[in-house]
Design brief:
single chain, 486 residues, alpha+beta, six-stranded antiparallel sheet, 14 helices, 22 strands, globular
Length: 486
């Protein structure tokens, strides 16, 4: 997708490394509520299609509930928990907390003592520690059931997609118990039959951050650092991990061309393609990557941009990529960009992207000369989103092979990741990121009020995930390898 720089936004606590000696002003209840109300306003007036997955009447009712919770507990941790963004169920609409305020928060709250992973709404310890075994399933925290805690975590998904892997349990518990000095935790290492208990102190941020960087999963850290990484499993099988499509075309082609030349020269018969935790990138890159596994000389690469909101309707608090307030010239430029590239279709009320929009668009995309035509299995999970979901869609629609893992967190037939506008909330100084259009993986904007992600053919159970974590094994990768060798 054509992402602006601020779309590579931080997870809630990933910006704590920014240090400041300045005291953060006390934010009043009135200011929290004002920022909350402004978020509601820009969702309604600026999002390209805010009520695709929720009726406006239902949205208003749920907003009222959240607002009362904020009014009752006007604190920054609670402001992070009850913001209304997740109600419209668009994984690309998000809030970037202010780095300096978060830095101040790290010095005033306590943190959950263990790094964790969530799989199918179950929580597992994902680190070596003396207090609790690796892979142990956490059942309760301070007398609260894990399921109740997870239910309070905003589900950042598109439409009706069911996804829990993206939820950060350790972060959420820290926000829900910001002042606790001691955690009492019950857990099980064998599926819930032998329940044990441990009481341990909460952590400061330094130790919390250390634990998060020492997790056992994921295994393919080289791929996360480089974007693309491949290795041989045996003489017949190769694994290719692609953790980002946000790479330059020149770099991508160079790396892929070399890898697939090697695969061809070695006579590799089986390929496992791993796009788990891939958060997308440039949409124009997707057919390039797919061309290296296409079995057809040419394949269809069809997508269409559409929006219902082609202009900047809310001008106050709009900021540019450098977090500076947009001026009149900036707003005119943003509007002109859309006016020149989107045309109204009066039949359905959508503005569709015209031929000027994407000079790199190729509908009949050619297979690469080094394309691999053998057996392929695709690995994906709940954190496969945006342009990566389009790759999974191409893979599935072309019947290229079986898919292992979890449902993608983005819809299987469209996404909202293209261009973005940013609004800085005046009191909490958080930045709200809103998409400007939807992208449909066909030629017409659909009006579906539901969506599901790309559904895998095979998946592991939470028990298998736990067993893999305990054995230091990638259970999903092992399943893919066993299937492809059959």
């Amino acid at each position: 997708m054509k992402l602006n720089k601020t779309f590579c936004f931080m997870a809630l606590f990933s910006c704590f490394d920014a240090l400041s000696q300045n005291a953060i002003k006390k934010i009043t209840k009135k200011e929290y509520l004002a920022d909350f109300d402004f978020m509601v306003r820009i969702i309604k007036e600026q999002h390209p299609n805010p009520f695709r997955f929720i009726q406006e009447e239902t949205f208003d009712k749920e907003v009222a509930v959240l607002r009362k919770k904020l009014e009752k507990e006007p604190t920054y941790p609670n402001f992070c928990i009850v913001n209304p963004i997740s109600l419209i169920r668009d994984t690309h609409t998000d809030v970037m907390p202010d780095a300096l305020i978060l830095d101040e928060l790290t010095k005033t709250i306590r943190f959950f003592p263990f790094a964790t992973s969530v799989y199918n709404n179950r929580v597992f310890v994902n680190q070596y520690t003396n207090e609790i075994p690796i892979g142990a399933e956490i059942l309760t925290v301070n007398q609260q059931k894990v399921g109740d805690i997870i239910a309070k975590i905003a589900n950042k998904v598109d439409g009706d997609i069911e996804a829990s892997t993206n939820k950060d349990f350790s972060q959420a518990v820290s926000l829900q118990f910001p002042n606790t000095e001691v955690y009492t935790i019950t857990y099980s290492v064998d599926g819930g039959t032998g329940i044990q208990s441990v009481t341990t102190k909460s952590l400061n941020y330094e130790r919390f951050n250390y634990n998060r960087n020492k997790t056992v999963l994921p295994f393919t850290l080289i791929a996360y650092n480089s974007g693309i990484y491949g290795y041989e499993v045996d003489a017949d099988t190769f694994v290719l991990s692609i953790k980002s499509f946000d790479l330059s075309e020149e770099y991508s082609y160079y790396i892929l061309s070399n890898l697939f030349t090697t695969i061809k020269e070695k006579g590799i018969k089986n390929l496992v393609l791993d796009i788990r935790d891939n958060d997308g990138g440039a949409l124009s890159n997707i057919p390039l990557f797919y061309s290296f596994i296409s079995q057809e000389k040419n394949f269809k690469n069809i997508y269409k941009y559409a929006t219902k909101v082609p202009t900047i309707n809310v001008k106050e608090n709009l900021v540019d990529e450098n977090n500076k307030l947009a001026n009149s010239t900036d707003i005119i430029s943003l509007d002109n960009f859309m006016k020149q590239r989107f045309d109204l279709n009066e039949a359905d009320g959508f503005y569709y992207g015209n031929t000027r929009l994407d000079e790199y668009y190729i509908e009949n995309y050619p297979q690469d000369k080094n394309a691999f035509t053998g057996n392929v299995i695709l690995l994906q999970n709940n954190n496969t989103i945006s342009a990566a979901a389009y790759f999974a869609y191409l893979f599935q629609s072309n019947k290229r092979g079986k898919i292992v893992g979890q449902e993608t967190r983005s819809c299987s037939n469209f996404t909202t990741a293209a261009w973005f506008v940013n609004y800085k909330l005046p009191h909490t100084e958080s930045v709200v990121v809103l998409p400007r259009s939807e992208i449909f993986f066909n030629t017409t904007a659909n009006k579906d009020r539901t969506c599901r992600g790309v559904i895998p053919d095979f998946t592991i159970t939470a028990d298998q995930f736990q067993k893999g974590l305990q054995d230091l094994q990638d259970a999903e990768m092992n399943l893919a390898l066993s299937l492809i060798k059959k």
